[in-house]
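Appendix C: a fully annotated inverse folding record. The material below is reproduced so that readers can follow the format used throughout the book. The structure is listed first as tokens, followed by the designed sequence.
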């Protein structure tokens, strides 16, 4: 068993699982803060209910996100200690800032928000939530700064074989980090928008199915009420229709932001990691055309078996250079350039273990990068399309009485999650065989092959045991989160505001009525 392969699977599984929580935390947190701001400014009970309901879902996801994120820190030191030694002088600064500044800001103010309902002044309580949301965004930036240094090292010099940071500002303002951060943030906001849309569609459909709401002859909604069902009144309808339309608008704006920032990021990748982008495009040879569909056997990484059956002339040049005529280097041109610069074989060094001296394949797994790139774009477009459709179909105040449309809307919640995950898999897998990619323009000697990054003391059995254990634990946590989310989504606003069960009771914020009432 290859310990490097097992270690990569272990880190990949835990990281992708954790990243499912991250965009929902970033995107939904912002939307909950906006909803509470609207309540603070208008006093409208619709926004209070929306804040309480989606705030509870936000907290469930946040708690599971923290639990799964802690494992990442341990893996750096236990499974990838050689990597940690190599990057430690650089990683220490952004990770320390993330933990000491951003995470404590986030967690402290989130605690004030959770337990501050009815105890803090309304303005202070709202500010606590915004501080927590801003803290999560700052936290994400420092993490991406660390990750982007692996993609594009800057601000260091080599001392005794290790990069030592000489310019923290260069590290924090790395153009790769800024592009990746804005792209990630818009992707997270898209997740939050789709989350609001899908759940709100579900409740509007059930109001129609249960006969609470109906549709007049002109297609407009006739809002009803169900006195025997807690919270199923006219205000409940406004909660869902406004949440749906807010989510749809946010989702469309976010997709536009993703497209713009993604174009910037792609142009940087063509400069900084040309092999990654050539593999993502299935561009075996130099050219200008963008491959919409490639057939063959890309998993073999053999360009002789890959054929572009449909491509758009000039589009690849536009994505890379901003024009339609500049040829872009393909895999067959780039391979000898990489071999000449970084060697055709791994060094004969004990750090590389059984891989010492073996030939280096500088081309990432084409099937992963090619389809990861297209899944990222395709599922992002699906999410935006559903948002646009939702705005059109709800223009008269409710959703169509179609169970299939409702199920499609719920299923569309997964589209931006898949797009985000595919983007990260493409970014990380496309960097191989480097764990720290070289920066030929500035720091050509600062790079590290993945085979040299693993802890020398760990055995395949240790890694396999931890891989199986962590996968099982994370699987259980996934079931727990989905179960909690499902229970509270089905319960509607009443699941977050138990006082709605009392007849003729006007909801109000009291000291005993906080968002975490489900926990004790």
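Designed amino acids, in order:
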């Amino acid at each position: 068993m290859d310990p490097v392969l097992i270690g990569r699977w272990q880190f990949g599984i835990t990281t992708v699982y954790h990243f499912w929580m991250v965009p929902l935390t970033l995107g939904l947190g912002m939307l909950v803060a906006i909803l509470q701001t609207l309540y603070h400014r208008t006093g409208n009970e619709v926004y209070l209910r929306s804040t309480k309901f989606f705030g509870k879902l936000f907290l469930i996801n946040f708690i599971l996100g923290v639990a799964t994120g802690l494992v990442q820190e341990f893996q750096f030191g236990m499974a990838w200690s050689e990597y940690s030694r190599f990057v430690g002088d650089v990683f220490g600064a952004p990770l320390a800032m993330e933990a000491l500044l951003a995470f404590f800001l986030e967690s402290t103010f989130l605690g004030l928000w959770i337990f501050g309902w009815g105890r803090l002044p309304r303005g202070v309580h709202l500010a606590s939530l915004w501080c927590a949301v801003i803290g999560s965004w700052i936290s994400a930036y420092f993490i991406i700064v660390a990750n982007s240094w692996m993609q594009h090292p800057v601000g260091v010099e080599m001392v005794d074989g290790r990069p030592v940071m000489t310019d923290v500002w260069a590290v924090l303002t790395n153009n790769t980090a800024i592009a990746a951060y804005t792209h990630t943030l818009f992707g997270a906001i898209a997740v939050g928008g789709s989350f609001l849309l899908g759940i709100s569609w579900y409740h509007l459909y059930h109001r129609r199915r249960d006969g609470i709401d109906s549709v007049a002859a002109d297609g407009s909604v006739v809002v009803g009420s169900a006195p025997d069902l807690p919270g199923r009144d006219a205000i409940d309808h406004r909660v869902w229709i406004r949440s749906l339309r807010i989510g749809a608008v946010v989702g469309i704006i976010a997709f536009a932001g993703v497209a713009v920032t993604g174009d910037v990021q792609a142009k940087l990748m063509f400069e900084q990691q040309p092999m990654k982008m050539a593999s993502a495009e299935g561009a075996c040879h130099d050219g200008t055309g963008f491959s919409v569909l490639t057939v063959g056997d890309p998993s073999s990484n053999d360009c002789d078996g890959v054929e572009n059956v449909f491509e758009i002339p000039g589009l690849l040049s536009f994505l890379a250079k901003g024009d339609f005529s500049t040829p872009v280097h393909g895999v067959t041109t780039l391979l000898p350039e990489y071999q000449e610069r970084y060697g055709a074989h791994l060094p004969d060094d004990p750090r590389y273990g059984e891989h010492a001296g073996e030939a280096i394949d500088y081309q990432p797994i084409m099937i992963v990068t090619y389809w990861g790139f297209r899944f990222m774009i395709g599922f992002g477009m699906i999410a935006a399309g559903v948002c646009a459709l939702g705005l059109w179909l709800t223009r008269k105040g409710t959703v169509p009485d179609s169970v299939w449309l409702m199920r499609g809307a719920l299923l569309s919640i997964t589209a931006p999650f898949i797009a985000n995950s595919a983007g990260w898999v493409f970014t990380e897998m496309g960097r191989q065989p480097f764990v720290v990619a070289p920066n030929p323009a500035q720091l050509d000697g600062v790079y590290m092959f993945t085979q040299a990054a693993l802890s020398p003391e760990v055995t395949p059995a240790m890694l396999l045991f931890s891989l199986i254990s962590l996968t099982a634990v994370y699987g259980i946590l996934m079931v727990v989160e989905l179960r909690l989310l499902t229970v509270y989504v089905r319960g509607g606003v009443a699941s977050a505001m138990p006082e709605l069960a009392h007849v003729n009771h006007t909801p109000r914020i009291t000291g005993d009525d906080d968002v975490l009432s489900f926990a004790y």
